[in-house]
Amino acid sequence: MEFDVEKYREDYPILSRTVAGRPLIYLDNAASTQTPRQVVNAITDMYENHKANVHRGVHTLSQEATAMMEETRRATARFIGASSTEEIIFTRGTTEAINLVASSYGQLLSEGDEIILSVMEHHANIVPWQLLRDRRGIVIRVVPMLADGSLDMDAYRSLLNEKTKVVAITHVSNVLGTVNPVAEIIRLAHEAGAVALIDGAQAIAHCRVDISALNADFYVFSSHKMYGPTGIGVLYGRRSLLEKMPPYQGGGEMISHVTFEHTTYADLPFKFEAGTPDYVGIAAFHTAISYMEEIGVERIAAHEEDLLNYTQQQMLTIPGMRIFGTAPGKSAIISFLIGNAHHYDTGLLLDKLGIAVRTGHHCAQPLMHALGIEGTVRCAMALYNTRQECDRFVESLRRVAAMLQ
Ligand code: PLP
Questions:
Q1: pTM, two decimal places
Q2: Ligand 1 centroid to 201 CA: how many Å?
Q3: Dihedral of the CA atoms 386, 390, 392, 394 (nearest 10)?
Q4: What is the pLDDT of residues 289-327, one digit of tens each?
Q5: Which of 96, 272, 324, 339 registers the highest number of CB atoms within 10 A of its CB?
Q6: Taking a C-beta distance cutoff of 8 angstroms, is the pair 81, 213 a contact?
């Protein structure tokens, strides 16, 4: 079946607007994807027809809202191939999910225990572990990368040892687009007796994720990068680990019984969901998952791969073009610099031509340091981008390159 991108584009009113007098070309999808009308309608429907606080009400609205939230939990579990809804915890995003694991699982670690990260991690998968290091005296080890931006798996193997307790590595680099061999990373972590957390923020909307096949212990991602509402994230956690872990935050919803002397906690997943969740967003997140399923994650991936190859080939004909991250099978993210032009200037000029890209260190300063640069310009594709947009992007880049060099 043909990938009818023009039909899908109609789902996104924002794609018809202009910026700087030109039709918008949105290529900042690794930061946030746009939201289809179906998801916006689901938010409106929840506010207009079902809004009431979840989990504690006997009245009809509360029961409807609760059912919608729990239906999303079931859809999320199915979407990632998790075996139980008890293993799906709603958070505010990837960042909160990693903080939850570092803070809670971290309490099971001891001084001298080691955690392995990679040089291409987002700050969200670095700083929570540093906070833990400062509290508990654990040691952080870092896997370097090879020249093409792929992970140095030999170095990874040599870092694993009996002190390794956690391996926390990104599935897809938000700067380089590198798709890491996470199944192998997890297998090796398990062999060493460690648990593996995979940061799926950049993978979840761009390839099929099957938790059971990966055998991940923790897998985290954000709704706003997968056509869903902002403010929602998911922590998948292996039940046997979640059961052992102490609560992350205390409050309503996460308790079984409270006295001033002693509190017992709710069962999974509620033990980790203190306070009123964003139940409106969670209900609408279900629509985002169904939307992706209806189009087909594999078909989206194939479309993006076509755009990636098409665009990259043309970009390389621009004098001075430097692309960072050329690992085989990379995701549709292109980080680049034009000669010595500052990434900020390139981004600003592209904006004047109606093109939205991201510039800067992309919350990956250690990676920038390893590359010996301060930042890049990043373009990242999504299901609604077209070859015509890529043509206009490359044409605009050519103009910008001529102006800046
Ligand atoms: N990890 C990666 C690889 C990311 O790209 C991002 C966001 O850009 C995050 C984590 C943080 O996600 P959020 O800001 O939704 O918590």
A1: 0.98
A2: 5
A3: 180
A4: 999 999 999 999 999 999 999 999 999 999 999 999 999
A5: 272
A6: yes
Paired residues of 114 in beta bridges = 139, 164
Residue 159, Cβ neighbours under 10 Å: how many? Answer: 17
Rounded Cα gap, residues 137 and 113, in angstroms: 8
Tokens 């139940």 found at: 279
Residue 45 to residue 31: CA distance in whole angstroms: 26
Mutate to test the pocket of ligand 1, among 222, 224, 367 (most ligand atoms within 8 A of CB): 222
Q: Are 168 and 371 in contact (CB under 8 A)?
A: no
Count of other CB atoms within 10 angstroms of residue 364: 27
Distance (Å, whole) CA 294 – CA 79 = 12
Give the whole-angstrom CA distance, residue 350 versus residue 196: 39
Q: What is the number of H-type helices and E-type strands within the chain?
A: 14, 17
Which residues form the catalytic set?
A: 363
Q: Identify which of 38, 382, 327, 9 has the alpha carbon closest to the alpha carbon of residue 202.
A: 382
- The minimum-distance atom of ligand 1 relative to the CA of 121 is 3
Give residue-wise pLDDT tens across range 280-297: 999 999 999 999 999 999
Beta carbon of 170 within 6 Å of any ligand 1 atom: yes
